[in-house]
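Lab notebook: predicted structure, single chain.

Context: the supervisor wants predicted structures on file for every construct in the current expression panel, including those that have not yet been purified. This is the next one on the list. No modifications to the sequence; it matches the entry in the shared construct table.
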Amino acid sequence: MAKAIKIRPPFAWLGRFWTPVGIASIVIVAAYFRISTLSSMPPGLDDTSARIGLQALAIGTSHLLPSLNDANGYAPLWVWLQAISVHLFGNTALALRLWPALLGTLAVVTTWFWLDGWFGRRVAWSAALLIAVSPWAVTLSRNGLESSLFPLLVPLTLLVCSRAVRRPGTWELIALGAALTADLLSGPIGWLLVLGVLIIGARTLAAHKKLLEFSRSRVAGAAVFAIGAASLAYLIGASLPAIKNMPKDLNIPTSLSVIGHNLVYVLLMFNGHGDDNYRHNLAGEPMLNAFVGTMMIAGLLVAISRLHKRAYRIVLTLALLMLIPAVLAPAGVPNSSWAVGTLPLIFALAGIGTGYMLELWYATFPINSAARATGQGAIILLLALSLLQGYTQYFRAYAGSTAVYLAYDEGTTQIASHITTDKFAGERYAVVPADQISVINYLDYKVSGYQAILPSALQDIPIATANRQFYIVAASRDEAVKILVAKFPGNVLHPKYSQFNQDEIYYTYEVTK
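Prediction complete. Output recorded below exactly as produced.
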């Protein structure tokens, strides 16, 4: 095999400061993409994040252990993290987005160190920058879902695994046990990750006839992992009814034809038609832009051709394993949040592809410095264009889409704000669909004098002389108004408008007669 060609970094004039300056620059870019306008973009709040927020608010001195259920993604670690945030910063949408933004930024650094150790600097720089600016990664790092954990947990687990293999000391194995514990407490995607790592690790140790060796460092690492496994087992036992209903709650498809169709859609989402859910993506746009998608395919081919090398085998194996949740998604396939476990691995393949293209270019022009510089400049330009495309897609197209405001329940969010700030001497009701009740209950947590109800529940409100004020979200308007006009005639419905596009988003109906 030919010796790898050394490529001079584009900013070699920085000397030994090149690496820390480069890493710091990528971190600044990643942080900007994740923190800029975080309190207002995405607008409003989605019900899944709100349900996690309600469970986080319930965590306190008398209640420390969350139950495992579909609402929190069976991820107690995420509830604990969000509990810290909401107790420090209050029951706001921003409080639920702080951890995702922080973890998403740390994921970029962790990915760099992981890929630098496995595939070299060239791959590390490319993949880290692409994750920093990719709309897929950025969108998942700006909401309150438990999927925000995995852009960090996947590279972190692989990083500590590789360090434990190279130097199996006590602290390295304790770090490995801690990483696997975090995976176990992060829901089904984390369980799959632990399963994959344990199988690969056991096979590697068995090949070197070291599987049954025992040492003080191994016992220490195993003890930390055992604590995590025992904690998960206890939580499963305490949440047994929800665990038994897990397949039903997740609505996992059992038909092979459905699974086959899902697999096709999932594979096409990277370069073809992406996620149609505006909470995760923009209008079915591919999860990767043209350059990144092409490099991912090139990296996939390179990895297949180098299967004799362990690092490439592990990346491909885990990429396939992490696709399973997306293939088994109950609805809305492809769902990019269910495929989040593959995100670092997909961008690792894109980095491998980018590095390989540079290798080919340098091999074609081993002496001509102008041609070598041209090839390097072309890659840098394409990476810069990926940055521009990522910014434009999220902060311009996505932020300017009316569908995003609908997906994040703008009307319900505005109702919650007015209930908090408006004064009213009487009974107040927020009339919202079932999937939006958690949003208003989280944002108006412990606010007295109101009740969130379904439109059909208006039938049960007794007719009395007390003043009443009804806030009606647009989706509940027709059913709610029909009941209110029949029960409390002679009052006026007042529309309220979106600050974004001036559409009617909710209504007030005040009963004084």
